């Protein structure tokens, strides 16, 4: 069975992975629409930019001479330098049509050669050549889909004699999306690793270590070798578990003390055979010693059971027991000086919360008086035997 630490970590990492997958899916869907919109704008811009470059580089009007397309005095048919330059400048595929036929292009066929002599798609020819409109949108360019821009080429008399084309491949769009998603995935992975390390440290320090200490304490209780209470720091629930365990320890110690006292009482009540003659002789020879011992015992009993400190079991409030009270009062009698609840708790090996209840009870009975000691930070309450 996996440990609590591993279960929490697996749950966290699984949640982060699921969140990352959902985030990347939504991001990819969102980016697809944004990239398509961006490529449409790019096609429009590149179409205009390339048209102005051609006009400035080759002055004059478009014309058809001897079956070839001219711009001014420059022949455009098979003018690879022109289309290659515009392609490098924009990153697009570039084509110039005479009518509906390619006469200069950067578009390559399956054999790796320029597809000179191929036709434009029918819907583009209808829009550009017959209707005289600019076409912006998706188009099938020699078997591959592109985000395209087609503009009519007009002769000096206004007749449409050709088409100028720029296109952005869908593979280019996909590359942009993939590159962006990979970047986001790498950043997400790094963030996940960082969160996992911080979570591992937090779980180990705040949950696992305190629970481990309490577990060791319960083993001591189970084996009957408990010597002191546990002291842990962690979340509120962990501290409540610590208090519950320490209260159990107190009850265990009280129960053990009652068993020991009961055992001692049983032993003292057993009948003892006494040699009368020996006792008589011993008594006559040591009467003064016995009287002295009796007086000493009486003084010790009075000292230990001082009426100011001794409180019967039935007088204690609910939640307090006499064994713990005796343990605390003996410590206070042995250390007659101002003590805080932390000092007493450390001396008797009990929790500060438990000790404070007993000290406040003794203060109510008038056995102790308290005063506040001021210094740096919060004032400390000191208890002094009255």
Automatic annotation (TrEMBL):
InterPro entries noted in UniProt: HAMP_dom, HssS/ArlS-like, sCache_3, Sensor-like_sf, WH-like_DNA-bd_sf, WH_DNA-bd_sf
Its EC number(s): 2.7.13.3
Segments crossing the lipid bilayer: 181-203
Domain HAMP: 205-257
Enzyme class at the top of the EC tree: transferase
Catalysed reactions, as listed in the record: ATP + protein L-histidine = ADP + protein N-phospho-L-histidine
Molecular function in Gene Ontology: phosphorelay sensor kinase activity
Topology relative to the membrane: Multi-pass membrane protein
SMART domains in UniProt: HAMP (SM00304)
Source superkingdom: Bacteria
Protein location: Cell membrane
UniProt name for this protein: histidine kinase
Organism: Desulfosporosinus lacus DSM 15449
Lineage of the organism: Bacteria, Bacillati, Bacillota, Clostridia, Eubacteriales
